[in-house]
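My main concern about presentation is that the manuscript never shows what a single data entry looks like. An entry of this sort, consisting of the sequence and the corresponding backbone structure tokens, reads as follows:
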Amino acid sequence: MDHFLYQNGALHAEDVAISDIAAAVGTPFYVYSAATLRRHYKLFQEALHGMDHLICFAMKANGNLAVLKLMADLGAGIDVVSIGEYHKARAAGVPGERIVFSGVGKTRDEMRAALIGGIRQFNVESEPELLALGQVATGLGKTAPITIRVNPDVDAKTHAKIATGKSENKFGIPIAKAREVFAQAANLPGIEVVGIDVHIGSQLTDLSPYEMAFTKVADLTRALRSDGHDIRRLDLGGGLGIPYERSNLAPPLPMEYGAVIRQTLGDLGCEIEIEPGRLIAGNAGLLVSSVIYLKEGEGRNFLILDAAMNDLIRPAMYDAYHDIVAVAQPAAGCELRPVDVVGPVCESGDTFARARALPPLVSGDLVAFRSAGAYGAVMASEYNGRPLVPEVLVEGDQFAVIRARPSLEEMIMRDRIPEWL
């Protein structure tokens, strides 16, 4: 469910007309619904009710400070993968004890900054990282709380570019080697082992890979405890999928996901951490764009928009599907026509959809890409000299620009020409 519905023939974000936002900020732009963000977070809270747990929003899905502040006010932790994300989380008011630091390539400078600033845990991904973290922590006279990320060699049945739990993926240590690495960690100065971390991929639409992975984690927990380790925290990552194509069957609900956690891990007495991003933010956002031209070609027509692959790269990178809807509600029974929906970037890959059935649209009409709140603005670039698009947050009948569109002058002035040119 989201809060983007037609009211009186016009698409609204909560109680604000999308066309009113477009008139105020121009197109293209991202818009997020605060009510949807809160609702999706609370679904996870309900799914884990009665269990000791922390929901850490995966900031890589949406890193806007206003979104992070909204999450922090709900009591969420934040999962970060760089020191830049760490500092954004702190700037949004998230305390260090609610920040989890993930990622395969943490540098010593990043480790040092997080240890000084405060951190809940590092999710350690390799033996070299473990040794480096121990040295940095010892040098600061601190102890680094860690989980060790294990790779369970489970096929998440998702897109190859967002699968992270198979043996050929770069993430974590092989689960068969886990006891050896945990023993090494227990003997390192500056390191405190608090638990196990696992994350098998993103946009999962089947719960069976979770069940397989969590069962392996449960077995490992018992084995590590028999080795004398105090395993008290299990970080299960995120990855639960969302319904990008509304005509398809819906992915599992958070409550069903929570049931798998209870079934596989509920008897261990561990604190549970999960790191959802897409399911919280994905359907809480739209990308809104204007039609520039309808171009008639040989055998196909092209709907050319002012949004492009630099604004929303998921279709070009992952062949991802996004529902595209007219902001002005089409008349009942109007004829739909197949068009290729494309942007103005000079790449054939700048294509959002092929032969998509849409109502008649003309220059100046507004369209909205649904399910664009995650991995949308955060992955945008200025390719082809196109400024980053603004982000807008809606709360009831009010809206605010939470990231402004830079002017062309601001974009150009970030470059520097050396004196010798």
Notes: Residues 161-167 have pLDDT under 50 and may be disordered. The first strand starts at residue 4 and ends at 7. The chain has twelve helices and 21 strands.
